[in-house]
């Protein structure tokens, strides 16, 4: 395998899952701050009575504390540099800059914090890759406006984005407008700030909210072109390569339609610059009437598509509409049935490294834009040994298999510019709020109830990834135990 000399090896985190300090230095409350921890997190978010109320007498809110990255970012970035990171993907907390989201002027203390984070990265020659909004929109906007279903959010978001681009545009080249934008179709609470009480179950409002995000993203691309043509503005999508369970034509058709909805729709608009031809069929499926658009919206989408496509890849999806008794896989984010040829993680996610190569080829052949795998990883229960390490061969094997398939995709001709495995340091899980679901190369001493020293320890995978980066992806063997 040969990776490009300038390939961006690194890791990824999100502000709301690692920073903590949820009210420090003028920060406002975000939707992540109102999400209870525990395996039933999504169940609570989908319940008809959930209204974003924070009730600490009944729930624990792990995002309030994260892993204390807000106070330990220098230590953490130094560890990333020790691994040899070429880039670090992180997000900026919207509520550190605009606490409610509606203010006219930004919070300087929030901007100063991210200036220090960015400068620390640059000190170590680590390229910052910044997500502007990663599942943490201001709680005020979710409660008072019903989230992204309200077009007014376009102005609030673009005001926020402009502040970031103007302040950091000379230091940060790579940006992404929204994390996993197609997540709106599966968990609109995280992506759109919408819960059942505010219309999460209404596909008309969900697609309207997505349209507002599409417009906002194109406005950011336009803004970046005017500020600095060198800036690279990307989208970010969940990609779950789809398979039909068998060659039954009904399953083949169902897989085609599922791929269009899950993997294609948002990419067509943001990277292709227009709503795809199958939009009407998709809207008919959900009873969605024509969306409300401003006269200039479609032209804006056409003129200002994104520069590259960032994607998260954790699993593939298998479809069987012929057999009603086919076993479902509860852990798969986008649904589907059990694929008998794949292994399943402790959280029910079916892992499929070859599916990443297939997905990268599908995306590149369709859009011919640079691709960036900005999330990929294995959530697992890690055991800290007496000598303060973690023997995580299972994680090393998982990542090695996926890196191998990325190398094959590059050999196929795919323009892949970087790889940032998810949760390069242990952090709070987005789906469950747990710490026990660990992804990182660095172990953080904290449990699901928030107990622990928060000290950091290098896992075996730390030294393995260090070797991978040093060899530019050519040496994926197991390193000698440290």
From TrEMBL:
<dbReference type="Pfam" id="PF00232">
    <property type="entry name" value="Glyco_hydro_1"/>
</dbReference>
<dbReference type="InterPro" id="IPR001360">
    <property type="entry name" value="Glyco_hydro_1"/>
</dbReference>
<dbReference type="InterPro" id="IPR033132">
    <property type="entry name" value="GH_1_N_CS"/>
</dbReference>
<dbReference type="InterPro" id="IPR017853">
    <property type="entry name" value="GH"/>
</dbReference>
<dbReference type="GO" id="GO:0008422">
    <property type="term" value="F:beta-glucosidase activity"/>
</dbReference>
<keyword id="KW-0378">Hydrolase</keyword>
<keyword id="KW-0326">Glycosidase</keyword>
<dbReference type="InterPro" id="IPR018120">
    <property type="entry name" value="Glyco_hydro_1_AS"/>
</dbReference>
<feature type="active site" description="Nucleophile">
    <location>
        <position position="375"/>
    </location>
</feature>
<protein>
    <submittedName>
        <fullName>6-phospho-beta-glucosidase</fullName>
    </submittedName>
</protein>
<comment type="similarity">
    <text>Belongs to the glycosyl hydrolase 1 family.</text>
</comment>
<dbReference type="GO" id="GO:0005829">
    <property type="term" value="C:cytosol"/>
</dbReference>
<dbReference type="GO" id="GO:0016052">
    <property type="term" value="P:carbohydrate catabolic process"/>
</dbReference>
